[in-house]
Design a protein that fits this description.
Structural class: alpha/beta
Distance between the termini: 53 Å
Strand order of the largest sheet: 4-5-13-10-11-12
Number of helices: 12
Bound molecules: pyridoxal-5'-phosphate
Number of strands: 13
Order of helices and strands: EEEHHEEHEHEHEHEHEHEHHEHHE
Strand content: 15-25%
CATH architecture of one domain: 3-Layer(aba) Sandwich
Length: about 400
């Protein structure tokens, strides 16, 4: 069987829904629906060695992805990004000791990890015969949707906040999507995209408002386990906007553990980073809350567009992963991000997005407070490439 998808489940009340019908949020609780698989059947019928022999894309995990029929897979070669040793990104004096790795998501099609989520969501939506696709975006998600829609031959509409990076907007238009600039933040674009989708009877793939983008993002966690020889690191540091990446990876780890594929059942500390100018999840974590309060939109300022997310429907799930894993949440300044863009360029030869640079800042801070020690194997997620924005990086 190509996919072992069994049903969808409400992330709040656990109620089940038919996975072969189109769904957005759960009708019962208006919260994210999560895809469930027959994991014991996957464990019986598939081995780790078989996965490793398959082509190097995220679709090597197709049993744990939602597309039923292989011919419906829409791919641009996303996934299986490099996991690189990066001790030279440690604070000076600790380079010899630091057990530091980076996963370079900037090498994905369209330049960010958003490609993974859109590859999964667009494939599955096309399989369920939608007529068109819509999304709100702060930049990268819109570009990724437009690319995969072009690849499969469906029309796409992207509502983008007007302060999104010009390079993303241009990229989205080039792929042929209809682009509307929205004054305000991604939350405002969210209302516009959902109204548009309803009017046209198109499908809105806003993150965690449909069940499959998070499945694509899950493959970051599956690959990480594979690349480390079916173990997991001590800690993962991830730049959280909507938080879907963290939710996806946490789901990956619990699925791998349920399948008995992990050599050591200990899961990593999930550490999220946000910008000081827009840190609703960090605020919630520091106040031990289960859900995040919306960050006042007028005060949401950061140059890292992917982190300009004042409120997100995945807040509860993201915080759950952080709490359950014994992780933490930390905010960092735009200045510090920019410095770390330079550090990554000059000490690693990598051009990274500002969002990605937050993880280096957080790593240094958490070593200073001894939340992490240099011996703790830590993986930074470089979620996006800095290449499109290189003209804006001051020298
Ligand atoms: C969207 C985005 C993020 C935030 O990811 P979430 O999974 O939504 O929290 C981080 N970095 C980059 C480059 C992004 O495009």
């Amino acid at each position: 069987m190509f996919s072992y998808l069994s049903h969808l489940q409400c992330s709040v009340c656990q109620r089940h829904y038919n996975a072969d019908q189109l769904h957005t949020i759960s009708p019962c609780c208006s919260k994210p629906l999560l895809a469930r698989y027959d994991l014991s059947a996957v464990a019986r019928n598939l081995t780790r060695n078989e996965v490793v022999r398959r082509p190097a894309s995220m679709w090597r995990y197709h049993e744990l992805l939602p597309v039923r029929d292989e011919k419906h897979v829409v791919t641009l070669g996303e996934g299986m990004t490099p996991l690189l040793a990066a001790p030279r990104l440690a604070p000076s004096g600790l380079e010899d000791k630091a057990h530091l790795l980076v996963k370079d998501e900037g090498q994905n099609p369209t330049g960010s990890f958003k490609a993974r989520g859109m590859a999964a969501a667009v494939s599955r939506a096309a399989e369920l015969q939608v007529r068109g696709l819509a999304t709100p975006t702060a930049g990268n998600a819109g570009a990724a949707l437009a690319a995969y829609a072009a690849r499969v031959g469906l029309p796409a509409y992207v509502a983008v906040s007007q302060d999104a990076p010009e390079s993303c907007i241009q990229q989205t238009r080039l792929y042929g999507a209809e682009v509307e600039l929205i004054s305000g933040l991604i939350t405002d674009a969210g209302h516009v995209a959902s109204a548009f989708a309803e009017r046209r009877n198109w499908f809105n793939v806003a993150t965690l408002r449909e069940p499959y983008r998070v499945e694509g993002k899950k493959t970051m966690g599956l690959e990480l386990a594979e690349q480390l020889g079916w173990r997991l690191p001590a800690a993962i540091i991830y730049p959280a906007g909507g938080g879907t990446g963290v939710v996806g990876m946490w789901k990956a780890f619990t699925e791998l553990r349920a399948m008995g594929w992990l050599i050591d059942a200990r899961l990593p500390k999930m550490i999220i980073v946000q910008a000081e100018g827009c840190a609703p999840l960090v605020h919630a974590f520091l106040h031990k809350m289960q859900e995040a309060e919306a960050w006042p939109a007028a005060e949401a300022h950061t140059a890292a567009a992917g982190l300009r997310v004042p409120s997100a429907i995945g807040d509860r799930l993201t915080l759950q992963a952080v709490y359950e894993s014994g992780g933490t949440a930390i905010s960092v300044s735009d200045n510090a991000m920019m410095q770390m863009v330079h550090l990554a360029a000059q000490r690693m030869g990598m051009l990274i997005a500002l969002e990605a640079a937050t993880t280096i800042v957080a790593y240094h801070k958490l070593l200073a407070t001894h939340f992490l020690e240099p011996e703790d194997e830590t993986v930074l997620f470089f979620t996006g490439s800095g290449l499109p924005e290189v003209g804006k990086y001051s020298l």
